[in-house]
């Protein structure tokens, strides 16, 4: 498990492109038959992926980093499948996940195993884990079952549908909030006007991008913006003080996840377009 440290906004002002990518960009999430994990000190979120092809992948790592006996002893986990049909075994109970289905796994679950149904069309499980202080039951929701709402307009190039999976009035969690946004054809902006989450960090994972497409992910303080070039199935860490917005060369989908002081999806501080620099 790779470790990333928290960064101060005054420090980030001095970062060049390479340093920005080292601190915030997560380029590798899915390695065949392996588990990839990045621990950020931004609210102790763990971001990663499990990519079983012809063998199972277990949720396990060097637990000295977490100071526990098993991964979910003091953590919770949100999983969204962005690949082919798969199965997640949680302490022996099997959960089938089709593409874009979500599974929440509560604190105290001892054994988590990821499996693909078809090696020719393997599952790819995107993972977000946050520290937990209370146990909630493991629960699944499909894309069709999620609380969804339309936002934006084609005139502003940001027509999109927001699907909320793990949130205040959906799947219950200790602090993890997780969902997915799908941009309509002809739209490219994911969030503009921008905002910040002073009480929560956030992570984005971009996918459904063609091989030659990119998303320009905007971050930094409103008065000191920076950008990171993102490609398909890559993630980025957004500190609580940073904006998180972006525009792609065509439409795309992204998974957002948050951890912090509350689970209110709408708890954000808007940034005036005039304040951006």
Could you characterize the architecture of this molecule?
By secondary structure, this protein is mainly β. It has helices spanning 9-12, 17-24; strands at residues 2-4, 25-26, 35-40, 46-50, 57-58, 75-81, 86-90, 93-97, 102-105, 112-116, 125-131, 139-141, 147-151, 160-166, 177-183, 195-196, 200-207, 215-221, 224-230, 234-238, 245-248, 253-260, 269-270. The strands form five sheets. Strands 1-3-4-11-6-9-12 form a seven-stranded mixed sheet, with no helix packed on it. Strands 2-20-17-22-15-14-13 form a seven-stranded antiparallel sheet. A hairpin with a 2-residue loop joins β18 and β19. The longest helix has 8 residues, at 17-24. The protein starts with a strand and ends in a 7-residue tail after the last strand.
SSE topology:
Layout (H helix, E strand, L loop, with lengths): L1 E3 L4 H4 L4 H8 E2 L8 E6 L5 E5 L6 E2 L16 E7 L4 E5 L2 E5 L4 E4 L6 E5 L8 E7 L7 E3 L5 E5 L8 E7 L10 E7 L11 E2 L3 E8 L7 E7 L2 E7 L3 E5 L6 E4 L4 E8 L8 E2 L7
Parallel strand pairs: 1-3
Antiparallel strand pairs: 2-20, 3-4, 4-11, 5-10, 6-9, 6-11, 7-8, 7-10, 9-12, 13-14, 14-15, 15-22, 16-23, 17-20, 17-22, 18-19, 18-21
